[in-house]
Amino acid sequence: MTEHPDSPYAPDELVRQGGVGVPDAFMRLWTPHRMAYIEGENKPTSSAAGSGCPFCRLPGLADADALIVHRGESAYAVLNLYPYNPGHLMVVPYRHVADYTELTDQEVADVATLTRQAMQAVRAVSGAHGFNIGMNQGDIAGAGIAAHLHQHVVPRWSGDMNFMPVIAGTKVLPQLLTDTRALLAKSWP
């Protein structure tokens, strides 16, 4: 690597840092709020149920404080604190279970109903063109909180994979989560 005249780093240090700090034509878009998720903020240190699990703790809070959009009989819908897209919800059973096969028939029905209603509410509020819906079962499958089952409902729009996430690794969320929660709660079928 050649030394840039404006760089405070010696050439060998630039190689170790992968060129970071070398002036170039790229604008850096920083998303420090994502570091909280990466570093495990709010992630339980144990797989046990109770106050250490955010999905067990949230139902004990006021809906607006917990970002809960709707409460069902055996599950609830809550905004994702670290959303992939605006309106990204999760449907979570109240009971602390890790695996879909552990759900009762009532819980399965409630999760399905709340997922359908979440899609209806998001479409009514934002006109989503489609959805990614799914569960990551276990740490190895990418579950951020593997001990408490949750299903993601991620709204999608034509062209939502623009240059920001593809090139810049950045999501633009045009609305505060509290505002999104209020709109979705008001529009819940």
TrEMBL record:
<keyword id="KW-0808">Transferase</keyword>
<dbReference type="InterPro" id="IPR036265">
    <property type="entry name" value="HIT-like_sf"/>
</dbReference>
<dbReference type="InterPro" id="IPR052908">
    <property type="entry name" value="AP-4-A_phosphorylase"/>
</dbReference>
<dbReference type="InterPro" id="IPR011146">
    <property type="entry name" value="HIT-like"/>
</dbReference>
<keyword id="KW-0547">Nucleotide-binding</keyword>
<protein>
    <submittedName>
        <fullName>ATP adenylyltransferase</fullName>
        <ecNumber>2.7.7.53</ecNumber>
    </submittedName>
</protein>
<feature type="short sequence motif" description="Histidine triad motif">
    <location>
        <begin position="148"/>
        <end position="152"/>
    </location>
</feature>
<dbReference type="Pfam" id="PF01230">
    <property type="entry name" value="HIT"/>
</dbReference>
<keyword id="KW-0548">Nucleotidyltransferase</keyword>
<dbReference type="InterPro" id="IPR039383">
    <property type="entry name" value="FHIT"/>
</dbReference>
<feature type="domain" description="HIT">
    <location>
        <begin position="54"/>
        <end position="163"/>
    </location>
</feature>
<dbReference type="GO" id="GO:0003877">
    <property type="term" value="F:ATP:ADP adenylyltransferase activity"/>
</dbReference>
